[in-house]
Amino acid sequence: MTHIATTKYIALSSFLANAARDERIPAGLIKLIESVADACSSIATAVERGVFDGASGNAHSENIHGEAQKKLDVVSNDIMMGAVESVSCLRGLASEELESVQMTGHEHSADTPDYLLLFDPLDGSSNLEISGIVGSIFSVLAAPATDAVLDESHFLQPGVKQVCAGYAIYGATTMFVLTTGYGVDGFTFDGESASFVLTHPQLQIPENTREFAINMSNERYWEEPVRRYVRECVAGASGPRQTNFNMRWIASMVAEVHRILMRGGVFLYPRDNKNPQLAGRLRLTYEANPMSFIVEQAGGMSTTGEMPIMEVQPDHVHQRVPVILGSRLEVERLLRYHDEAAAA
Ligand code: AHG
Ligand code: MN
Ligand code: MN
């Protein structure tokens, strides 16, 4: 087998150094991003080795959402925490698998900005036992420049305040996808050099698509604008859209967003009345916000159906939110259907 020299690709570390030199990312953020990327390559290995390391199956515990934790949810959370907690600019972190926010103990430094990290250590973990696609999602916020003790209130910033967001996907290849507000870049893990290298620079989501993703088994719980949209897609060439659509559902937001970045599409986990106390299935601060930042930086759109996701003011770190995101023209159509339903 011949190998193409991966030296022709820029390593993540060089990419970050160049971006800092061009002031596309604050220099202080480099260490944090590299530590998150290191954690992601370790999580990829942990996922791959789960069955050998006794880390497959359920942990017999529940997270804050009342969901059964897999052993690998817990392992991935420990890997991420272990990788970032010594990063001196990181003042605190929040995770899907931690009941409350946790402070690192690092003091505020007057010279460099401080940050907060929010993450879903393992997304789509119901796919683990079928060797399906899983991932990790993260969001970085600025921490207030203060010596005072921080608490959850400092994490409650709308998504427009994110300074960086990204995800890793553990699929046929392991990739790390990143934005610091200057477009979206995709890095593939190269096992030979044991590093992420830039393979997908400046990703752009096509504005048009004929592919949608939604959990159809929830149809009876949806609101009318979403029912109308899906009904029209399913009607295909003989319906009002006059074209045939395709549908995908991988049960991992990382996998759905990655597909949308690669070839367009729209992903919905909308508000439903399955459990009227909850606004939707997905979590705002460590799932919806980082993915919205990425999608919008790649030319797509993201909304709750009523407002841009990244403008939602969080009340608590584990809050849920309805999610509609992807190719711009389809998200605009969904927004129009929501407006028309509200006006009727
Ligand atoms: P997690 O594994 O972190 O709990 O997230 C799973 C989420 C999301 O990634 C996916 O889109 C959705 O839950 C799948 O929901 P269904 O079980 O309704 O398919
Ligand atoms: Mn998740
Ligand atoms: Mn998770």
From TrEMBL:
Against InterPro entries, the record matches this protein to: FBPase_C_dom, FBPase_class-1, FBPase_N, FBPtase
Q: What is its EC number?
A: 3.1.3.11
What keywords are assigned to this protein?
Answer: Carbohydrate metabolism, Cytoplasm, Hydrolase, Magnesium, Metal-binding
Localization per record: Cytoplasm
**Binding locations of substrate:** D123, G124, S125, S126, N215
An example Gene Ontology cellular component term from the record?
cytosol
Outline the extent of the Fructose-1-6-bisphosphatase class I N-terminal domain: 15-201
Q: How is the cofactor bound?
A: Binds 2 magnesium ions per subunit.
Concerning Pfam families, the annotation shows:
FBPase, FBPase_C
Give residue ranges for domain Fructose-1-6-bisphosphatase class 1 C-terminal.
205-338
Recorded catalytic activity of this chain's protein:
beta-D-fructose 1,6-bisphosphate + H2O = beta-D-fructose 6-phosphate + phosphate
Question: What cofactor does this one take?
Answer: Mg(2+)
Q: Quick one: which residues bind Mg(2+) 1? A: E96, D120, L122
Give the Gene3D superfamilies listed for this entry.
3.40.190.80, Fructose-1,6-Bisphosphatase, subunit A, domain 1
**UniProt key word Acyltransferase:** no
Q: What residues does Mg(2+) 2 bind to?
A: D120, D123, E287
Q: How does it assemble?
A: Homotetramer.
Q: Belongs to which family?
A: Belongs to the FBPase class 1 family.
Q: Which protein, by its recorded name, is this?
A: Fructose-1,6-bisphosphatase class 1
Q: Which organism is it from?
A: Paraburkholderia elongata
Q: Which gene encodes it?
A: fbp
